[in-house]
Structure formats: C-alpha cells, structure tokens
Write the structure tokens for this entry.
Amino acid sequence: MAPAAPLIEFAGVSKVYPGAHEPAVDRLDLAVARGEFLSLLGPSGSGKTTCLMMLAGFEPVSAGTIRLKGVPIESLPAHRRNLGVVFQSYSLFPHMTVAGNVAFPLQMRRRPAAEIDLKVREALQRVRLEPFATRRPNQLSGGQQQRVALARALVFEPSVVLMDEPLAALDKKLREEMQLEIRRLHRELGVTMVYVTHDQSEAMSLSDRVAVFNRGRIEQLGAPAELYDRPTGAFVAGFVGDNNAVAGRVAGREADGSLVHLSVLGRAGTVVGRCSDALAAELNLTPAPARPVSLNIRPERLRVLGARDAIGISDVHDVGPGGRLNRWPATVVDLIHQGDHWRLITQIAGGENAPPWVVKLPAGTAPAGLAPGTAVTLGFAPEDAWVF
Ligand SMILES: Nc1ncnc2c1ncn2[C@@H]1O[C@H](COP(=O)(O)OP(=O)(O)OP(=O)(O)O)[C@@H](O)[C@H]1O
Ligand SMILES: [Mg+2]
C-alpha cells in the first residue's frame, strides 16, 4: 500500500521579512501526516513561529508552496484554512466569560444556538473546566486560562491544531500537567498537531516526530528516540539532550569505515569514535587526513573507570561491544546531587580551556572517593561516541 498523502506539506518554503539580511525560513520542505503530533524545536530566532504563522495564514510566504490536503493554501485567508490555533499569550477575550470565549469560533461560523451550547459544554468537559463556564479569564489561574484557549481551538473540530509555546508561561508542575492533557486530547480526538517549543524535553515527551530547527532550516527530523540516539550532527546532539564534545582531527578509519580514529588535544595515541553518515560520505569522496571534527558523548555513556592513579590504569571491568574502551584521564571539578542522579563535573586532561565534561551517575551509587581534585579515568565505548 502506498503511504497516505501528507495532510500538510511545505515545499521549498522561504520567508524573508522586509529589510532582513537572512531568510527567517530557508527553503523548507516538511510533510506532516494525518493524526501526527509534530513539534518544531529550536533555539530562539530559528524560524519556528514564522513557519506556524505562514501555515496559519498570518504571514505570507516569500517563496514556495504550502499544501493542505494536497491543495495550495497560500492565497487562502486565515479564517478559511479552518485550523485551530493556540498561542503563548492565551489571547482570551477578557470581557467574555469562559463559555463565551469557547463559543466564539462557532458564532463566527454562524452555527445554530443549540449546537453552540452543546459543543461548548463538550469542549469545556474535555479540558475539565465545566464548573468555570461563567467566570471571566481574570478569575482563572494561568493553567485554567490555557485550557480555555485549548478548548476554544478544539471546539469547531478542526483537523489541524497549531500551538506556539502554549505552556511557556506556566510553572513546571502546571506545564507537565498540561502536557499530559494535550497528549490525552491528541490521542482521543485524533487531530493533527503542529507544536512549537524551544524546550527539548517538552518536544520529546509530546511528539511522534520532532523537527529540529537551526537558522531557518531543519537540521534533523525524526522520532524523539532517533534524535537522541542517532543525531546527524553536533547541533542536534547538543540541542537534544546533554552532550560532551571536544574538537579533534581525523587520524584514520577502520576497515569497514564505521569507526574513525581521531587525534585530540595533542594526546598521544588516538581516540576511536563512531563515524556519522555525513562524515563517512565525505571521507569516502575525499579521504581527508587531519580534517577537523567533533567527538560527542552523552553524559550517561561515560564511565568512571578508576579513582586513583589516573593515567594508564587497567581496571576495565565494563568493556564496550567489541571489547574496546577509550580511556581519558580527567580531574574531578565537582559532584552534584540532582535527586534522581549524580552529575560528576570533570576537566579532561589537555582540555583545560574546553568546557568541562559531565558524567551522569545513577542515584544510589553515592560515589565515594570523587572529591574535587581527584584524578580519575573516564571510559567510553567507540560506539557511544559520535564523530561529526
Ligand atoms: N515580523 C517580523 N519582522 C522582521 N523580522 C522578524 C519578524 N518576525 C520574526 N522575525 C525574525 O525572523 C527570525 C525568526 O523568527 P521566529 O519568530 O520565527 O523565531 P522562533 O524560532 O519562533 O524564535 P523564539 O523561540 O524566540 O520564539 C528571527 O531572526 C526574527 O528576528
Ligand atoms: Mg517563536
């Protein structure tokens, strides 16, 4: 069976704001499947809101085409696109009651009064705000106001709901509650969600797929686990999850090409890491000795091999696949208890001017003998270290 045609499609879409030197969105291709929860994740200014505004019809595109159900919509005014929209500022009408706010999109569509009553009640039930129907927005908490905005976006049963940082103004606990609420609504209603956030953990916990934005382009698009386990570049490795990185140069490749040897920080010998697909393709074309690269390792993939004489120790009790382990002398800078885990902050040998490396240790191991100043050896398997 052929895959279903995408519900939403960006094809070569660019946006250049008047007077800007760089495009805010740069030749974007993106397809969103029906019923999918897709997040646009990226740093401030990377073009997420601009994408959503073009999709919603609040900003014209500079080039390219956006299709909804296969039909180009650039010339369709916002209200005819029939998309539910929730923005960061709840933008509720302050003079209307909660029920009045939720009824508004149906009144705009000239639905009969009886239907409006029923739909508003259902929508408020869905977000668990029925008892608040007659209150005004300023008599509600931030999370309740956000739920009104959600009810208002869903009440006319749009097939697509767009949300731009809808939870940014809420405290952590409320934000997590609302995330569960949004997940539940997505599951129950089967609507397609396009969700903008700069919070990677929010994107990871909500989405089927995440598009990581950087300077108006998508760096990588994939399921949360894929972005975390198989980042295609240093930007994504650093933006999605924690990452320890160090610069090095290619010193050679192993026979099957999947592992690459680096010389790093003037250390004798080489460090072995996993060759990213892009780097492999590049090295296949032009084997570039001494090409500058970066080595990237997740904090939970680093191990502390021994807290004693740091260099050249051999108490390797936990070897990686293939039985090989990179070893790196380091000095403990700090040990921080984070509740569910410990963070060991270290300065790697030779990297005195580089950012510290963080090792994540499981809670409960109450690491002994790791006082600041202790010399340790860090170990990591070649397969756990990405080279970009
Ligand atoms: N109305 C505008 N006029 C001119 N430039 C704009 C306008 N809106 C956004 N920009 C610029 O376009 C770029 C992308 O902005 P956009 O708001 O899409 O980023 P964002 O990813 O949503 O960022 P944030 O996480 O801070 O909300 C930025 O460089 C921004 O300064
Ligand atoms: Mg934005």
Remarks:
- The longest strand covers residues 326-337.
- The two ends are 36 Å apart (CA to CA).
- The pocket of magnesium ion (ligand 2) is lined by residues 48-49 (CB under 6 Å).
